[in-house]
Design a protein that fits this description.
- It is a single chain.
- A five-stranded parallel sheet has the order 2-3-1-4-5, with helices on both faces.
- The protein has a single domain, classed as Rossmann fold.
- The protein is α/β, with parallel strands linked by helices and 194 residues long.
- Bound molecules: adenosine monophosphate (AMP).
- It is an enzyme of class 2 (transferase).
- Its main location: cytoplasm.
Length: 194
């Protein structure tokens, strides 16, 4: 099963991707996690991406397209994968389409988690509080200023993907304001034919 999860920061893409990945025995491919790992390891990509990520802006299409293409070639992706946070721009979506075609693969669904924007900042604040309470490391872009910038980037560059995938006939929309289990159940209903 090959799936894209779309939605603004804080919509619950990561949570749903983890649950679905576990259930279906396929990996969650989060470009955000991959980039954070590159930053932590201070690789060339990590060095180029760090300041851009901390400012809540998008890393270049060229970098993320390459990361995803390499990751999809790894053996654990043979049975499928869940893309979480990629594509994030129309050029990335086009690059992904070409990449999959070149690899002889196709998508099963593109699922958008629709959420009320007013809830997003609250969700980010809850995530920070939970991470802090559990002694975890808070993301350097989970602060009000960077988060606002991430929302602007989403509206300008990522939201147009809904129209793009509506045009290809692949888009399915789910109400992301429901509780976690209800959202998972709604996604599973969409995936039954896949
Ligand atoms: P995320 O964990 O998905 O919220 O991503 C955190 C940050 O990583 C984003 O704010 C961007 O700076 C960067 N990032 C993650 N995925 C992408 C992508 N597909 N394109 C560009 N930048 C990305």
């Amino acid at each position: 099963m090959r799936l894209i999860l779309l939605g603004p920061p804080g919509a619950g893409k990561g949570t749903q991707a983890k649950l679905l990945a576990h259930k279906h025995g396929i990996p969650q491919l989060s470009t955000g996690d991959m980039l954070r790992a590159a930053v932590a390891q201070a690789t060339e990509v990590g060095k180029r991406a760090k300041a851009v990520m901390d400012a809540g802006q998008l890393v270049s299409d060229e970098i993320v397209n390459q990361i995803v293409s390499d990751r999809i070639d790894e053996p654990d992706c043979a049975r499928g994968f869940i893309l979480d946070g990629y594509p994030r721009t129309v050029p990335q979506a086009k690059a992904l389409g070409q990449m999959l075609k070149d690899k002889g693969l196709r998508l099963d669904a593109v699922i958008e988690l629709k959420v009320d924007e007013a809830a997003l900042v609250r969700r980010m604040e809850n995530r920070v509080a939970e991470t802090t309470a559990s002694g975890g490391q808070v993301r350097s872009d989970d602060n009000p200023e960077a988060f606002r910038k991430r929302l602007v980037e989403y509206r300008e560059k990522t939201a147009p993907l809904s129209e793009y995938y509506a045009g290809t006939g692949e888009l399915r929309v789910v109400n992301g304001m429901e509780n976690v289990d209800a959202v998972t159940a709604e996604i599973e209903r969409i995936l039954i034919p896949a």
